[in-house]
Amino acid sequence: MAKMKVTMLTGPQGSGKSTVMREEAIARPGLYLFAAPTHELIDEQANDFRRDARWLKTWPVHSKVGGKGKVEERLEHARSEIMREGHKHAVILTTHDAMMGSDLSLFAGWHARIDEAPAAIQAGSFNVSEMRTALKDRFALHTKPGHEWASLRLRGDKPSWKRLQGTLGAKELVEFYKQAANTARVFVSTPDWDATDDIEWFSMWTPLELAGFASVQIAGSSYTRSVGYLAAKAIYEDRLEFDEREILVARTGQPSICIHYFTEGHRGSTTFWETSDGRLQIKHVCDYLGKTLPKASFWSGNTVVQHLMEHRIKGALIKASAAGLNKHRNRQHCAIIFSGKATKADKGMMAAFGLDKDDIERAREDELIRQFVMRGAIRNPIFDGAYDVYVYEKVQAERLKSHFGELGFDSVELVPLADAGLMTVRRKSDGPSDQEKAAKKAERNEKAAKRGRKKRKAEAEAAGREVGQPGNPKLKKTKPA
Predict the structure, then answer these.
(1) What's the domain range around 87?
(2) Is the pTM of the predicted complex or chain greater than 0.70?
(3) CA distances, 138 to each of 167, 178, 182, 217, 402 (Å)
């Protein structure tokens, strides 16, 4: 079987990968389905298409535009209307979610263009004991001898997600149902529903679901480091061929970049930030940024961080995954207080793909931070002014500095914010620091020395010796007067 070819447009953030895809779609007649991560980016791209090619049929489809009904239905309606009107050159733009959640078999022969790496992998776990019968009735399991994971096939029609959520009451299980409605999309850690009560699962979208398209391109500096790419390579390397095409940018300006960080004493996480101690650290961050971050800035973070920081600091709150946007490229200050580390829900997926915690952290946390900070003024290759970035922890700052070096920025400084009040704070789960361990060891050694001195004193007194003097005093000769 011939491998499916996928072209990857890679290169630094802001190198113009999206522009290249758009310009080539305008120059080469055909029917194109563009997918982007957010509504904002779809609207931005649609406006760019209309500006550069007024004559080209351009149809954005997402939850706020594109007609009535569900997004999947709007997508099919847009395709039907374009075909009915006889267009030979047209563009439909939709979201990653719509692309991954729709049956695109009717788009056979079109060209797929995906802007930024899609969130192709989801994972979770649940206890099956109270719903075993329902799962048996709704899903068939398919596995191969020697394989620990089984794929699912939905029996019957897609269920109502609202009804399921009301019945099951578990968000993660509703997401499982939604993903499992797509054939061979979800895998579970059991070959038989009766074999165990605790189920780990993961869903995986791969470009193979676009096999009917005439061509497939994915533009994104982070795609080759994404969990979706690593998973696809691990499982379908014999069916997918990735061809990398690098889009370079020549910088004519060198900005002075300062990466500020708040702590080196612990790593941030949403679990920690949801605790009282964690909220206290975000309060310290808010207090500092409230005085420092100017109004002409942009910022974001995990949902829990956004809730704690919103209305307390200046600047524009935007989505953390604001990949590809150009609207903030005049701003010279940004803050991203974000954590995307591996969780318990990732355990099964990591085992299946041979990934470790560092793979997940770099694919989720590092890449999102890189994409976010490149939304500002440094996205412009001629910018040579000052640019300030605020991240939570030193590890993030160091990795970001290394990335900037790879992009050709030669003036990058790390700035610890000790006066913010959380630089050396440790989480209880982290255990003692090296300094605390050394102090504890010195204390133990001092206590041991005291016990030794006390023991020797008792032994000397029992033997009739003068404390602190060796030997037996009864055998000592009396010195002449």
Answers:
(1) 4-117+210-246
(2) yes
(3) 15, 12, 13, 35, 49
